[in-house]
From TrEMBL:
<dbReference type="InterPro" id="IPR009045">
    <property type="entry name" value="Zn_M74/Hedgehog-like"/>
</dbReference>
<feature type="domain" description="Peptidase M15C">
    <location>
        <begin position="77"/>
        <end position="136"/>
    </location>
</feature>
<dbReference type="GO" id="GO:0008233">
    <property type="term" value="F:peptidase activity"/>
</dbReference>
<dbReference type="InterPro" id="IPR039561">
    <property type="entry name" value="Peptidase_M15C"/>
</dbReference>
<dbReference type="Pfam" id="PF08310">
    <property type="entry name" value="LGFP"/>
</dbReference>
<dbReference type="InterPro" id="IPR013207">
    <property type="entry name" value="LGFP"/>
</dbReference>
<dbReference type="Pfam" id="PF13539">
    <property type="entry name" value="Peptidase_M15_4"/>
</dbReference>
<protein>
    <recommendedName>
        <fullName>Peptidase M15C domain-containing protein</fullName>
    </recommendedName>
</protein>
Length: 333
């Protein structure tokens, strides 16, 4: 067994022991994608939350971005991600603290929670809504978890089935992404091109490019400001691979897209290479309301300070990170 104490906590908010990665497994339900980024605690949590992801994908909406599961660290000291008993689904659509899910989808989620008999809890029911978040609904040791996992394994809801007689062909993820995004237009060449790391692949289309990597899946980088800024910054070699689809409907013509090394923003009047935000400053800026908050858009990348910290300028102020882990927001301009 491999358990730990994190930030002074030995159990997470829902009453499960904090664990290391080796106590977690991955969901292996056929035809369920974007779940290999979400380790889940072995045993009942893996069975139950894995089944929930499948039910959600088939009944609420398609899972279109990497699911988040176990994490080594977290901004919330007793987060259930630290015990491998929580998953975040389609996170870009449902920012923490917002209630953006349409009523029809909420109704489907509620139906699913009823079918899962209280074994799954939805973060939308917290005072500060977290509509992307689902976690175990009972504490470790509660026999209802093992009983419901056995019920699922026995065929309840038809999720865990016998293996098919022959394996299905592995889908080409770039082709699948292009199918989901017809707005990207016609493919400009046959086959795929190899990225500099020898692992990733990309293909060019009339309206942008699709990049794929086993860590991140396949995502569109649209032509236009985001695509141009990505090029100017040295492609995936410097920014990493895209993790989400681009949001092209921000204020003042703004756009953003998350990459492995940060979120790239472009907007009218901003730098042509965009502005990258990440790390502790990025986390705090998100809590302040992103570009719609009091600081507005980032004016450029963060820069080092004389005391070993980092500083980033925004439209209406600046944010400083100190080596002590303190974050300071300067008076808004």
């Amino acid at each position: 067994m491999s358990f730990r104490t994190v930030y002074g906590y030995s159990t997470s908010e829902a009453g499960w022991r904090m664990c290391n990665r080796d106590e977690c497994g991955l969901v292996t339900i056929p035809d369920l994608y974007y779940v290999d980024t979400a380790p889940i605690r072995k045993g009942a949590p893996l069975t139950i939350l894995g089944a929930w992801l499948y039910w959600y994908d088939r009944n609420v909406e398609e899972i279109v971005s990497p699911v988040w599961g176990w994490s080594a660290t977290n901004d919330v000291a007793n987060s259930n991600h630290l015990s491998g008993t929580a998953v975040d689904v389609n996170a870009p659509r449902y920012p923490w603290g917002s209630r953006t899910m349409p009523a029809a989808k909420k109704a489907k989620v509620r139906e699913g929670l009823r079918l899962f008999e209280g074994l799954v809890f939805w973060g939308a029911d917290w005072d500060r809504a977290d509509e992307m978040h689902y976690q175990m609904g009972v504490a470790e040791g509660d026999q209802r978890a093992a009983a419901f996992a056995a019920k699922l394994r026995g065929g309840y809801l038809g999720i865990y089935k016998s293996a098919p007689p022959a394996p299905k062909p592995v889908p080409n993820m770039i082709d699948e992404c292009a199918r989901r995004h017809p707005e990207i237009g016609a493919r400009l060449h046959t086959g795929e091109r190899i990225c500099k790391d020898g692992v990733g692949r990309y293909a060019e289309f009339a309206g942008g490019r699709i990049y794929w990597h086993p860590r991140t899946g396949a995502h569109v980088i649209p032509a236009g400001p985001i695509g141009e800024a990505f090029d100017k910054r040295g492609y995936e070699w410097n920014l990493g691979y895209p993790e989400w689809e681009a949001n092209r409907a921000l204020r003042d013509g703004g756009q953003c897209q998350a990459f492995e090394k940060g979120v790239l923003y472009t907007y009218s009047g901003g730098p042509v290479e965009g502005a990258l935000i990440h790390g502790k400053i990025g986390d705090r800026w998100a809590r302040e309301g992103w570009e719609g908050g009091r600081l507005g858009y980032p004016l450029g990348d963060e820069q080092p300070t004389a005391d070993g910290g980092r500083r980033q300028e925004f439209e209406h102020g600046a944010m400083l990170w100190h080596p002590s882990e303190a974050i300071e927001i300067l008076a808004a301009r």
